[in-house]
Write a structure and sequence with these properties.
By secondary structure, this protein is α+β, with helices and mostly antiparallel strands. The protein has two helices and five strands; from the N terminus they run E-H-E-E-H-E-E. A hairpin with a 5-residue loop joins strand 2 and strand 3.
Amino acid sequence: MEVEELHAKVHGKVQMVMYRDFVQKKARSLGLRGCVQNFPDFSVEVVAQGPREHLEKLVGHLHKGPFMARVSRVDTEWREPGGEFKDFSVVY
């Protein structure tokens, strides 16, 4: 399968609600590599690499989030994979 890269910025109540851990678990269960991190503007950035079908499933999870999250918007961008990730990690 061809590897693609998803760059997503998630807006809403997505910090201090275990959102990054949620994304990490979903991404790992889909066999994706990449990272997730909080941004100073209270959004969360996700960079994930893997098959398009798995990345699209992750986008669905990003829109839902964990129980306490309230996602208002997910901006997505598809890119050529840049850089390599060994697994899917949370950046602190």
